[in-house]
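cron nightly-structures :: item 1 of 1
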Amino acid sequence: MATRDRRRYGSELLGERGRLLPAVGLLGGLAVWWAVTALGSGIITNFAPAATVAVLAELVVSPEFYDHVLVSVYRFGLALALCLTVGLPVGIVVGYFEAAERATTVLFQFMRMISPLAWFPIAIIVFGVGTRSAVFVMFMAGLWPIVLNTAHGIATIDDDWITVGESLGGDTRALLRRVVVPAVIPDMLTGIRLSIGILWIILVPAEMLGVNTGLGYLILDARDRFSYAEIPAIMLVIGFIGFWLDLSVRRLHARWNWG
């Protein structure tokens, strides 16, 4: 309570000026970027903000660039759909049935600690070079937050809710549909948000697995063409899309948060 009161008091002191802080942070980051490239020497000067903005202006009017963006978004969407299709049901089963939880805890904790990069060779050997291998690597990275957050949410449901549902004659299917799933929507959204962040981060190296489309490929292609200013320009686009993906889930989470 004391911490919450201090935060509220600090927010009141900031008032309208607090709304300017995000802009101040962005300007600070831009200043550091400019200083590093302006005061540095050698190849790092090619990544200057002015050159990056000039290249970005050319990219945003190029139809070919949007083709690469759409391919990356498609791969991201496909991987997220697979994570949701597998992760939510598995998380519900693991969280609701104690036997399933005891049987899978060690396995899942072990699997999630394997770096997604370690799956690259297996993905290429099994699926070949292309979208399938990239989506597989992303899936192996983004699955676990959804599974574990969903299971954790179910494990923390008030036992009285289940007792009331059972006293009203609810069977397992009814309890899951009417009590358990609605109660853990905030936890599901937390897992989805974490998964989205991981998937979007892993997308770039996944698209360096020999594919010839996507934002990750464009970064490698810019390096090979010595178009150094294009690299941070593409990074800005990646960050912009990722920011809005995360913001969308955060707003959805705020709407469905019972706390």
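cron nightly-structures :: done
Residues 2-39 form one domain.
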